[in-house]
Amino acid sequence: MTLDIRSATLLVECARLGSLGRAASALGMTQPAVTRMLKRLEDSYRVTLFERTTRGVVPTVYGEALLPYAKLIVSGVAQAGNVIEEMRGASRGVVRVGGVASAVVGFIVASIARMRREYPDLQFQVVEELGDRLLDALKVGEIDLAILPVLYADDEITLATPDIFHDSVAAFARAGHPILANRRVSLRDAARQDWALPPSGTPVSQEWLRRFHGKDIEPRPPAIVSRSVQILKSAVLNENMLCWMPVPQMRAELATGKLVRVPCPELDWRRDFRIYRRKRGLMTPSAAILVENMRQIGQENAHELV
Description:
Strands 3, 4, 5, 6, 7, 8, 9, 10, 11 and 12 form a ten-stranded mixed sheet that branches. Strands 1-2 form a two-stranded antiparallel ribbon. The chain has 306 residues and is of the alpha/beta class. It has helices at 5-17, 20-27, 31-45, 61-88, 101-116, 131-139, 187-191, 203-213, 229-238, 247-256, 285-301, and strands spanning 50-53, 56-59, 94-99, 123-128, 145-148, 157-159, 165-174, 194-197, 224-225, 241-246, 259-261, 269-278. α1 (5-17) crosses α2, α2 (20-27) crosses α3 and α4 crosses α11 (285-301).
């Protein structure tokens, strides 16, 4: 017999009460049953854990050595039960979550919709920003969770889940753009176009530039730079410009035919996402449930990437 929750509880109660009879009463067992369980535990370790005296039982040196581990098992199981109870009762409160625009569209909103079926009174505060701003907001406690398309770790930030999420990034142009006359657009042709992009320090713009520089190509500097997704879309819809955007953000315009995906395979990017939280403290039960819902959404949508 090895140390499990039943034997650990027995060990703790015998040490606490100093009597096999009182331990049996506390555990709802008979004294002979307690004696047999303790004997099996002692036989498995091949040592005596309690010294029997006329006044009760006293832990031996072996019992004292095992007792902290028994307490850890009992405490851990109790804490696990408390967390589940809190999660089951997480019907009120606020969850603050941030993500880049495609993560908000592809994961956060869908996960919130699913979660609200069970927790309709829970409030969600959603921040849509670029990665650098989200990291700052997470560190100072303005949000509890951040979904980022970049690997990141330091003394303040850690992963909320080891799962990796995905979406697709591609080049887009307005319907009728001259470049769409080509069945396939080369990276060198794309470099000569006017672009509307996020600021240069953001992950999307850095990856865009890396694609060209990896082929020793110097693209034209972006004609329009903005953090606003709507401004970038508007620039492309009204000018002969290209943008490099996550596919989920463009589905409405693609469905109406206003925007068209540029056939440039070298600019197709299957992007990874991860969910981060602050290292200090634990996630609230509501935040933990949201993470679990995002995991489920990510697994369900993994095969639907465009």
